[in-house]
Design a protein that fits this description.
By secondary structure, this protein is of the alpha+beta class. The longest helix is centred in the C-terminal third of the chain and has 12 residues, at 128-139. The protein is built from three helices and seven strands; from the N terminus they run ββαβββββαα.
Length: 176
C-alpha cells in the first residue's frame, strides 16, 4: 500500500482564528472520507462519523480541545463473520501545545494520568479531523463479537485420540 499524503479526515484550524472566549466546532465526514476511513481501519463501512468540540486558548500558545466523536460503523464479528452495527461515542480531551525543549513532549517519564493528552502544535495549525480519526481508531473494538456468541472448539476437551494430537501427526511425518 502506498503512503498517504493527506489524512483520510482532515479539518485544519488556526490558533489565530480562535477568539479568547473559545470556538465551538462541529464537523461531519463526507461519504468519500467515510469510505477511506473504513478501508484504512478494516471496517465494512462507516455510516456516520462526526465530532463536536470546544477549542479554547490555554495560554503560552496552547489550545485545549474538549469534545466527542460519534460514529456508526459496521464491523465483522470475529466468531461468526457476520456484520455488526456498532455505535461509538468517545470523549476527546487534548491540549495542542508548541513543542518545548525539555517539556512533556521530550520526557516520557513526566506522566500525569489526570492531564490532557498532548499534541504538538505545528505553527499555529491544529488538524482536528486527524485527531478525531485517531480517536475513532482507538475506540473501535479490535475483536468485535455479536451479543451472545462465544467461540466453540471443534470437540470437547480431552476428546481427541492420541492419534489425532499434533505431536502424533508430527511423529508420523517424521517416521514417514
Amino acid at each position: 500500500m502506498e503512503a498517504r499524503e493527506k489524512p483520510p479526515f482532515s479539518r485544519l484550524f488556526h490558533g489565530s482564528e480562535i477568539p479568547p472566549g473559545g470556538l465551538r466546532v462541529s464537523e461531519q465526514a463526507s461519504k468519500q472520507e467515510r469510505k477511506d476511513i473504513a478501508e484504512l481501519l478494516g471496517l465494512r463501512s462507516v455510516n456516520r462519523f462526526s465530532f463536536d468540540a470546544e477549542l479554547t486558548p490555554a495560554g503560552k500558545g496552547a489550545y485545549d480541545v474538549t469534545g466527542s466523536i460519534a460514529a456508526r460503523v459496521v464491523q465483522t464479528c470475529v466468531i461468526t463473520l457476520e456484520p455488526i452495527d456498532v455505535e461509538i461515542d468517545y470523549e476527546v480531551k487534548v491540549r495542542f501545545a508548541p513543542p518545548e525543549k525539555g517539556g512533556p513532549h521530550d520526557d516520557p517519564t513526566q506522566f500525569d494520568p489526570q492531564a490532557r493528552d498532548l499534541e504538538p502544535l505545528i505553527g499555529d495549525i491544529m488538524d482536528l479531523g486527524q485527531l478525531a480519526y485517531e480517536h475513532l481508531a482507538i475506540a473501535i473494538d479490535p475483536y468485535p463479537r455479536q451479543a451472545g456468541t462465544a467461540f466453540q472448539w471443534g470437540g470437547e476437551a480431552g476428546s481427541e485420540s492420541d492419534d489425532d494430537s499434533p505431536f502424533a501427526v508430527l511423529k508420523r511425518l517424521k517416521d514417514g
